Amino acid sequence: MQADELSPPIDLSLYPDGTSISAEGALVIGGIPVSELAASFGTPAYLIDEGALRARARDYLTAFRSRHADCEVLFASKSFPAASIVRVLAEEGCGVDVAAWQELAIAELAGADPRRMVLHGNAKSDADITAGIASGVGHIVVDNLDDVERIARLANTPVPVLLRVSPQIDAATHETMMTGHDASKFGIPSGQIADVIARIRREPMLNLRGLHAHIGSGIADLAQFQAAVDSLAKLERFPVYDFGGGLGERYVSTDQVPSVDEYADHVVTAVHRHLGTDVRIMVEPGRSMIARAGVTVYRVVTVKRGMRTHVAVDGGMGDNLEVSLYGAAFAPSIIDRTASSEICDVVGRHCESGDTLVKGIELASPQVGDLITVPVTGAYCYTMANNYNGALRPPVVLVTDGIAREVIRRESLADLVQRDVLAQ
Ligand SMILES: Cc1ncc(COP(=O)(O)O)c(C=O)c1O
Which of 97, 103, 118, 222 to mutate to test the pocket of ligand 1 (most atoms within 8 A of CB)? Predict the structure, then answer.
């Protein structure tokens, strides 16, 4: 059966490349029917197509390196802070952006080279700075004057740093994902940059190598990335420029986002025009690196037909906070079964009315026990998984070429209560 014979059809362009519908009508990811993965690993489960992830990393690296030899693509590990994922991307040649000593420890566990990491954070503790210095991270990104004081106090040899500045851009994205404007909690507001640069230069333990700007997440307008380059070029020249992450991803069929190639072209062209060709370019993609490699599979627990049809699954905001936090849109499908379609709200099992995965979507008339897949859940869903209502966080399963590997096991009740002192 072809995808377009399903009712309603599954948009395979939202799934990892290579996802298919078998002759029997089964959804197949990484060469394995999703129903088999659900039977083996339970639901909900995060499925990551390793082949698709590797291909995306190669796309990123080729897009930038072919245009500018001196560049670094760093995976923003906050988007999927698991050692097995970081390892895959490091193997492909990516560096790593870490934003806390814990993310640094995960990246080291993955075997990533600290010299190819940047350490971020708008509230770095002594522990964060100490870990960054001890591991020898490539750069620590100074976000505030307290970072300057801490590095000066904790370092014994000069530490290469970048300065995160506000490029004064109100990125066209959800308010919670805007980070590049002067009122942002991230970086140095434009009016203070010169003073902070002077302050850093008075500290012998800080070696200021360049500037950093991250304008936000989920951005589809390439002109905004160019504006960020333009904005940094108004400041004095440095050898290193890190433009953060932020490229958007398609979550639903109607979304349009630029390709990685177009993104690289715009950034590199703007750098060459405004900053010249002899600088190092760094970018830190998270969402656009991993989102589409990931699919969450759920099982339908309840179908309630009333004023609306509520299809409740065995997960929700415990494993996907993107909807309640950012209002993200997703495109779930009932898989492996055709039926006349019905308009439904797919809701989670948590005690919040806001615990909705999507409202008003056409599904093949749902039944208890059906499997539902939600594509494009590779970024920030695992990151923000939580234990609301005692939810046990889902496993992460890497699939590729017909082989499935559970790289994060499902949380157990023992995990859930192990920090509860009464229970010990
Ligand atoms: C400093 C920095 N770099 C990179 C990223 C990754 O952004 P995205 O996942 O949108 O690519 C973020 C996300 O918040 C960030 O704060």
Answer: 97
